[in-house]
Amino acid sequence: MANDASAAFDTLSPAVSKGSLADPFTPSADSSLWRKNFLLGAATASYQIEGAVDEDGRLPSIWDTFSATPGKVLAGDTGAVACDHYHRWESDIDMLASLGLEGYRLSIAWPRVMDAAGRPNRKGLDFYKRLLNRLKEKGITSFVTLYHWDLPQHLEDRGGWLNRDTAYRFADYTDLMSRELAGTVDAWATLNEPWCSAYLGYGNGHHAPGLANDRFATQAMHHLLLAHGLAIPVLRGNDPASQKGIVANIGRGTANSDSAADQRAAHLFEVQHNAWILDPLLKGEYPQDLFELWPGTEPLVLDGDTQTIAAPLDFLGINYYFRTNVASDGAHGFRDVPLEGVERTQMGWEVHPDGLRDLLTGFRSTYRNLPPIYITENGMASDDKVIDGHVDDTQRISFLKRHLAAVDQAIKAGVDVRGYFLWSLMDNFEWAFGYERRFGVVHVDYSTQKRTVKRSAELVAKFLKERKAKV
Ligand code: IFM
């Protein structure tokens, strides 16, 4: 198995297998990944795995509503059952532990733990308490995201993230969670990928709640970031020993030509995907280029908001998946120009590990106060099949190795990256793409809920075992 994997690594990425870019799973004195304190784990999110959407007092979320709307999700799939993790959490944690994974990043379903009047729902809370206690018993580091897109529908009915009040409701929810769960969580992330919540949810409507207006997107983003900024001091007060941060998805944009217009287009792509979130968090201001791209979309910002948003962070979570090649759209924006002959995943996303390294090293020079980084998601979808009890996810093995090699390069270039979480622990509900796209390192048969560990997970487990024995 290890030989097959190495062969795939060589075939798919000749550049990486030569010179200084060694296979990161091969023991090497100077590899950062072989440091004992480089955390290697896996991630999931509540709506994508839990199911049990109307059990034990859970309220509807915007994703229940959206996925029940015809035409919004491929094949009409919903998260009603998903991986049935709400009932299978114990064996799922056993599986995580048996792979030797050192960290688990999960999210809490807000509609499961709080009622519409802001009162705790004990049954929902107990689910997360049991789970977090079990992780602690197993010595697995827990990263808990408070908001991974499943907004309670009753808040959306009052305007959702377009309503400033939602930011204050999020602070209340954070207060409850951090009082109830203090001491069981190693690291709290306020939001997962505010870009997706704001842009896909309110800008182009591909995600719940399905609204499509650039002005809505910038206002929703402002309220999301405000919610984050209000939550950070609450977490500090209630659970001082934990780390506090936020998770941002980042995108690499490259120019289709050397022309000034295309170079500018690539810059604007990264402003829209990265600086829109990172500048307010780390510089206390929105990038003005954003409003050149989307004239007239400046959000309503009240006095003090920018200071609130720029609350100091203990860590920044980075989710990276692909690169986008762009050209000028002839006006003040950019258009995608998909490259031909490049490697792609089941999502159609281009595999481009260098983008991760380049963005990380770029952030180090752009943001003087860049906090320590965890790669909180990285992975790929493939059309995996169980054959004779095994899943040979060769492309994923190659993908993981190349991205881990890119992380190692960034660390060597001086970026403080402290860990890496595979997306995802198991196949799950991939939002608007339903169950067709498989991101897991563990395969899920949705008709039986049988889990099958893929070759990629076996390889990571082998690496972790060897590292444990060595360091
Ligand atoms: O499945 C998602 C996850 O919920 C957020 N980040 C990207 C993943 C793959 O699309």
TrEMBL record:
The keyword Hydrolase is assigned to this record? yes
Which principal EC class is assigned to this enzyme?
hydrolase
Pfam families per the UniProt record, alphabetical: Glyco_hydro_1
Q: List the catalytic activities from the record.
A: Hydrolysis of terminal, non-reducing beta-D-glucosyl residues with release of beta-D-glucose
Q: Show the PROSITE patterns listed in the entry.
A: GLYCOSYL_HYDROL_F1_1 (PS00572)
The active site consists of: 377 (nucleophile)
* One Gene Ontology MF term: beta-glucosidase activity
InterPro entries for this protein: GH, Glyco_hydro_1, Glyco_hydro_1_AS, Glyco_hydro_1_beta-glucosidase
Which parts of the chain are coiled coil? none
User: Per UniProt, which keywords does this protein have?
Assistant: Carbohydrate metabolism, Cellulose degradation, Glycosidase, Hydrolase, Polysaccharide degradation
Q: What is its EC number?
A: 3.2.1.21
Q: Name the PANTHER family on file.
A: GLYCOSYL HYDROLASE, LP05116P
Question: To which protein family does this belong?
Answer: Belongs to the glycosyl hydrolase 1 family.
* Protein name as annotated: Beta-glucosidase
Species assigned in the record: Paraburkholderia agricolaris
Taxonomic placement: Bacteria, Pseudomonadati, Pseudomonadota, Betaproteobacteria, Burkholderiales
